[in-house]
Amino acid sequence: MRIARGARRSLLVLAIVVVGDRLLDRLLLADGLFLGRPIAPFDPPLFSPGQCEALRHIQSELASPSPKPGKFDAELGWCNKPDSGFGEFRYDWAGARIASAPLARAKSTGVRRVVAVGCSMTHGEEVGAEQSWCARTDVLLPDVEIANLGVAAYGIDQALLRLRRDGWGLEPDEVWLGILPQAAMRVTTLFRPLLDHWSLDVAFKPRFQLDAGGELELVPCSARSLEDVARLLGDQRALLDAFAGHDPWVERSALAYAPRGSSWLHGSFVARLLITGLERSGRDLASCFQEETGFGALYTAIVRSMARETMQHGARFRIILLPGKDDLAERTRTGRGYWEDWCTRRKAEGVEVVELTSVLELPVEELGTWFAPQGHYNPEASERVAGELVRRLAL
Fold first, then answer.
1. By the 8 A CB rule, do 306 and 176 touch?
2. What is the pLDDT of residues 292-315, one digit of tens each?
3. What is the set of domains in the chain, with CATH numbers?
């Protein structure tokens, strides 16, 4: 009898816990948010009001008689179009950002042409056309002209693909790859919000994987049109099929991205919190700079491929290491940047690395001196970067 009473109590407690857990789920997680943050399952994988608004804009554009693709690019995910833009952000016939004038169509005798590829730190987000470090370096080096093919939010995988498509035709004498360490993990995903939950974009992108021989294997962009963007974000199973085996964030967090209601755990308050916490883990930037890890092997293979292809085109390759605010703060706290040993190894392989941390170092509380509100270099930082580049290149 005592055992039976104990079993009944246990069952009663279990029932209360289960009912309470389900009730908390209905009361606190019904809108998919907890303390203002999205909670799994992520169906669709939209994590912020800005992303939801971006999708509505795409749907509205598709419903118009003449949809405008904007920066959508079937090969690269997104890109600055040739002969586009306005104000301080205009692009010439080559799709390069215009500073004082468009890039000359024919190379001038005695002038070295540099093609610069990278992300927003190379493009010069948040500064005027003539204030980016590319533009300032161009002015300070009279025998150099720089075609700025940087694009906001690019990973170095997209930078390599843009160089292949848009850069080689410019017949560069040099290729500069701008690397922002804190953006290294962009090479790991096919859909920006999976990695950066607070991105303003709902942008699909291509990525590389390593084949059995350690060579780069391209996984094309899943969305080949704006219609595909809307379709994939409206059909979770179609999106999962498109990503199957190609996006590590979906693979490692299957329950977080499973169609809503496909698991009983999606109705549990505690389980949803745990699934969400696990999904957000594993984003260790340092791993991208350690060749023995999967992410590090991929990141290094992309850089090596760009260096090798540049040499095959008879041009000179340089890495321009552009630390962000978080990178500088981390280095100040720890005394060494997580990317520094990786740079040393690249130099040992014969790759030229221009590391610009030293010209931007300040106490953590003063780092705002160099950065615009959204975290990009401001005109003062751009000038320092350009000045240091000129000094280093003159050596």
1. no
2. 999 999 999 999 999 999 999 999
3. 31-395 (3.40.50.1110)
